[in-house]
Amino acid sequence: MSNDLPKVAWIGLGIMGSPMSENLIKAGYDVTGYTLEQDKVDRLAAAGGTGASSIAEAVRDADVIITMVPASPQVEAIAYGPEGILENARRGALLVDMSSITPQTSVDLAERARDKGIRVLDAPVSGGEAGAVEAALSIMVGGEQADFDAARPVLDALGRTIVLCGPHGCGQTVKAANQLIVAVNIQACAEAVVFLEKSGVDLAAALDVLNGGLAGSTVLTRKKANFLNRDFAPGFRIDLHHKDMGIVTDAARNVGAALPVGAVVAQLVASLRAQGDGGLDHSALLRSVERLSGRPVGA
Asked: 54, 85 in Cβ contact below 8 A?
């Protein structure tokens, strides 16, 4: 494909990365991708992208490099070292890390990239798998205004709400706050579901009317079917939300902010993971409330 759009390298083709990279292809971008699972690389190629056999090969000619991996250790693994992004990308390239990691990891990455002449943005997202597929993500960005402006057309192909939140690390801080709100919201919905069902109320009717009032939320809209059908196929895994609750509780402690409810929900997420439910969607917090309430646990 020959066009005037920047060449994009995409590292990390999981639940989020695959549909996001395909949205860039649909928008006309030349995307070369690499991930650990060959079938995911093949999926990108089938969608019109180019598969690469290594990070070095993927990033060599890229103007924009986008990374979407699970956590800080993976970001460090793909960015640093002789086979990593910083050693193999060209000077002047723009690295947009869309993973959800600690703010400090993003700050450190930006500093080390600066020595190589590589610009960096932290740009974590919210909206889950559905938001990725629909290109309706909320993207919270940390970094320089000029780099944000340069990345904006690419980000516009991936999301709807795209905001520069401040310098390096600020995108991650806002993402951590997002994960705090989402987890507490899911927990409140889960408690309401068990309360309603134990009371003999028609759950579907109750959730409809609740979602039309002040108790309504994007979380309830997105997760209503999960609750009703006990369908916990992962859009966003408990394992990842557990990681994110660790990020927000640690970051909050570092700045002296108290998260009393967040700390309780972080423990509920941890306990769900300890029960073997880490691979389920975060709406499976309902299973934890069912156990605590003496109900048979749903599928």
From this structure: no
- Do 113 and 93 contact (CB within 8 A), yes or no? no
| pLDDT tens per residue across span 109-147 | 999 999 999 999 999 999 989 999 999 999 999 999 999
CA distance 32 to 63: 11
- Averaged pLDDT, 82-110: 97
Is the model's pLDDT at 160 over the cut of 90? Answer: yes
List phi, psi (to 5°) of 254.
-65, -35
Q: What separation in angstroms does the CA of 151 have from each of 46, 93, 119, 206?
A: 26, 11, 11, 43
What average pLDDT does range 271-285 have in this prediction?
A: 97
- Name the active-site residue from 175, 223, 224, 243: 175
> pTM surpassing 0.85?
yes
Q: Find residue 236's DSSP bridge partners.
A: none
DSSP result, the chain: ---SSPPEEEE--STTHHHHHHHHHHTT--EEEE-S-HHHHHHHHHTT-EE-SSHHHHHTT-SEEEE--SSHHHHHHHHSSTTSHHHHSPTT-EEEE-S---HHHHHHHHHHHHTTT-EEEE--EESHHHHHHTT-EEEEEES-HHHHHHHHHHHHTTEEEEEEEESTTHHHHHHHHHHHHHHHHHHHHHHHHHHHHHTT--HHHHHHHHHTSTT--HHHHHHHHHHHHT----SSBHHHHHHHHHHHHHHHHHHT---HHHHHHHHHHHHHIIIIITTSBGGGHHHHHHHHTTPPPP-
Note if 175 is an active site residue. Answer: yes
Residue type, 23: N
Residues 288, 183: contact at Cβ < 8 Å? Answer: no
